[in-house]
Amino acid sequence: MSRNYLQAAVEIAQEAGKILIEAFSGPLDIRYKGDEVDLVTQADKRSEQFIVSRLNEYFPGHAITAEEGTGQDTASAFRWHVDPLDGTTNFAHHYPCFCVSIALAERDTLLAGAIFNPYYNELYTAARGEGAAFNGRKIAVSKVPTLSTSLLCTGFPVRNRRISPNLQYYGEFTQRTHGVRRDGSAALDLACVASGRFDGFWEFGLNKWDVAAGVLLIEEAGGKVSDFAGEPYQLGAPVILASNGLIHEEMRQVASEISRRVPAPGSL
Ligand code: IPD
Ligand code: CA
Ligand code: CA
């Protein structure tokens, strides 16, 4: 059953990707959502309009949470989580690290997820119990065994930047690892943990649409996703800690230690 959902998510993500690529090559109409760095483009909106209408056509009655606000609440146990363009700041600066992220959950259980970077034609997919794949080939998390030999990634919020504690975490983790990348697309960051390009990821304040597909990818690729206390990650929680599993406890201990000095809002 979940395979049909995944096929739909893949088809829709790839079509939406065409909308993004068309916009990417032309002049961009960039607007601001309140705060000075919270950007939105016509591409975010056009992509979401397409995704929501196609989901409604294929799965009438399913609920949809979509970042630009055009989804809908219904009584259905099935809910799609849609980020029509993750990495908008990159997109607006012509840095080709952006994607479409689409996932389906049945109540609290993620069933299927697709993340598609249309610039590089990179497609990450996962269906519950069926594994995760990159461009159709099975993927697994990395085997890097220690934090000191790991490559991590993180992200910084576009809202309330001044009260984000993440610069402290960024500094500490940078000194304890081979490095920490900051690529500007949480969905692709998580997909890269699933495929072994990165060994771990953490971030504060992400929304369900940023992480739903990526969380399923990591779980299906053999990794682990939790909060800083090590409890299983709940969609929309204020903190996410994801890894290949092997370095999870080390990452968690470092994060907990930092959070005693620099509290992570609502994380412990
Ligand atoms: C953002 C990206 C970024 C993360 C921000 C998100 P958007 O999503 O995922 O990597 O650090 O917290 O808001 O706005 O480009 O969809
Ligand atoms: Ca977005
Ligand atoms: Ca996003």
From TrEMBL:
<dbReference type="Pfam" id="PF00459">
    <property type="entry name" value="Inositol_P"/>
</dbReference>
<feature type="binding site">
    <location>
        <position position="86"/>
    </location>
    <ligand>
        <name>Mg(2+)</name>
    </ligand>
</feature>
<feature type="binding site">
    <location>
        <position position="83"/>
    </location>
    <ligand>
        <name>Mg(2+)</name>
    </ligand>
</feature>
<feature type="binding site">
    <location>
        <position position="85"/>
    </location>
    <ligand>
        <name>Mg(2+)</name>
    </ligand>
</feature>
<dbReference type="InterPro" id="IPR020550">
    <property type="entry name" value="Inositol_monophosphatase_CS"/>
</dbReference>
<dbReference type="GO" id="GO:0006020">
    <property type="term" value="P:inositol metabolic process"/>
</dbReference>
<feature type="binding site">
    <location>
        <position position="67"/>
    </location>
    <ligand>
        <name>Mg(2+)</name>
    </ligand>
</feature>
<protein>
    <recommendedName>
        <fullName>Inositol-1-monophosphatase</fullName>
        <ecNumber>3.1.3.25</ecNumber>
    </recommendedName>
</protein>
<feature type="binding site">
    <location>
        <position position="210"/>
    </location>
    <ligand>
        <name>Mg(2+)</name>
    </ligand>
</feature>
<dbReference type="GO" id="GO:0046854">
    <property type="term" value="P:phosphatidylinositol phosphate biosynthetic process"/>
</dbReference>
<dbReference type="GO" id="GO:0008934">
    <property type="term" value="F:inositol monophosphate 1-phosphatase activity"/>
</dbReference>
<keyword id="KW-0460">Magnesium</keyword>
<dbReference type="GO" id="GO:0007165">
    <property type="term" value="P:signal transduction"/>
</dbReference>
<comment type="similarity">
    <text>Belongs to the inositol monophosphatase superfamily.</text>
</comment>
<dbReference type="InterPro" id="IPR033942">
    <property type="entry name" value="IMPase"/>
</dbReference>
<dbReference type="GO" id="GO:0046872">
    <property type="term" value="F:metal ion binding"/>
</dbReference>
<dbReference type="InterPro" id="IPR020583">
    <property type="entry name" value="Inositol_monoP_metal-BS"/>
</dbReference>
<keyword id="KW-0479">Metal-binding</keyword>
<dbReference type="InterPro" id="IPR000760">
    <property type="entry name" value="Inositol_monophosphatase-like"/>
</dbReference>
<keyword id="KW-0378">Hydrolase</keyword>
